[in-house]
Amino acid sequence: MVQSAWDPVEPLPVGSAPVPAYGSGSLADLLPTLAAGMAVPGTVSAIPELTPADRNCVFLIDGLGWEQLRAHPDEAPFMSALIESSLGGTGRPLTTGYPATTATSLASVGTGLPPGEHGLPGYAVRNPGTGELMNQLRWYPWTAPHTWQPHPTVFQRAHEAGVHTAQVSAPHFQNTPLTQVALSGGTFHGRLSGEDRMDLAAEQLAAGDRSLVYTYYAEVDGNGHRYGVDSDAWRGQLMYVDRLVQRLAEQLPPRSALYVTADHGMVDIPLDPEHRFDVDEDWELRAGVALLGGEGRARHVYAVPGAEADVLAVWREVLGEQFWVAGREEAIAAGWFGPRVDPRVHGRIGDVVAAARDDVLIIASEREPKESVLIGNHGSLTPAEQLVPLLEVRS
């Protein structure tokens, strides 16, 4: 039977959303696997394809998704040559975890835990203790870091086990709360230039018989947000970071493994009303909503008490053809945040969780003016956002 244009369209089933590969091939599985290969107590190898090394370096390039890397071999010849041998020779990517956003992913990397356990399940989430939105990237309003995220990092476990452990990043990250809860352990070394970071990361790898070193580069993500992932500015950053990876790879000391990965991919969203649903201009989407968290492609929606079912029904009706729209318990049961959600994290997840399938955003032009005009965006469960490389170089 041909469907009439006036017939209601069924919303996307929650179960049709792809779930991150928690426990076997997600960002949260990387450091525990490397640490287990160095005999760090309390860590378990979860990615069997990775061969242990005495010295391990993780270079995280913010915003460099698997699909974007594969689409630009001319700009990234060194990394592109490593793709087919990635993830221990399988040629496969990792998944980030949900949502595919920096604060969540860095916490997954550093703690070795999925979002439902480390407790940073989005860009901005409700603090159940205060009822306020808490931005987990900027850490505002202030919240005691180790109360919010109490688990030790893999770096701390490695340092306590006698592994030489270091982070090499931009100096302004040294004392941030996100660094404290996600990446602390061993020694932080701040360097401004990418070249200096690569050189120092190689030195730190050589500083111990067993070493675990982390280094980071942000501007691929920054240029993607501002100009889009197919812009000249983004391509220029990709060319630059490709040279950085090669620089580090050529300096690896003996018995080392370098892993190049990312915290999320990115998609470009047109700047027009057809692709951007504005909650601040749409009375239906605003009705019954007390707080709007998350970000444009991965929203946490907190309802006025008693309005949860109505908000879920309206959001499904308005957005359900282009977003996976789930109630909190549905999203948890589907495994979006991992196989387990800690009780302290439960109330941080929205009453309604909306994850974009299509090239669309839920913006808030008045409350979030800067975020609402970004071209490159991320956060959801699509391959363009979820899949990240795990490129490997060994010495």
What would you note in describing this structure?
The protein has 395 residues and is of the alpha/beta class. Helix content is 31%, strand content 19%. It has 17 helices and 18 strands. It has helices at residues 30-37, 66-70, 77-80, 86-89, 102-111, 115-118, 145-148, 154-160, 177-182, 194-206, 219-227, 232-249, 283-286, 308-319, 328-333, 343-346, 383-386, and strands at 55-61, 94-95, 124-126, 133-135, 164-169, 187-190, 211-217, 256-261, 267-268, 276-278, 289-295, 298-303, 323-327, 352-356, 361-363, 376-377, 387-388, 391-394. The strands form six sheets. It has a six-stranded mixed β-sheet, sandwiched between helices. Strand 5, helix 9 (177-182) and strand 6 (187-190) form a beta-alpha-beta unit. Helix 10 runs parallel beside helix 12 and helix 11 (219-227) packs antiparallel against helix 12 (232-249). The longest helix is centred in the middle third of the chain and has 18 residues, at 232-249. It is globular and about 60 Å long. Residues 1-5 have low confidence and may be disordered.
Helical residue percent?
25-40%
Low confidence ranges: 1-5
The count of helical stretches stands at 17
What is the average per-residue confidence, as pLDDT, rounded to a whole number?
96
Oligomer: single chain
Report the portion of residues in β strands. 15-25%
Rg calculated over all Cα atoms: 21 Å
| Sheet of most strands | 6 strands, mixed
Total strands: the figure is: 18
Strand order of the largest sheet: 6-5-7-1-8-18
How far apart the termini lie comes to 62 Å
Using the alpha-carbon principal axes, give the shape.
globular
**Broad structural category:** alpha/beta
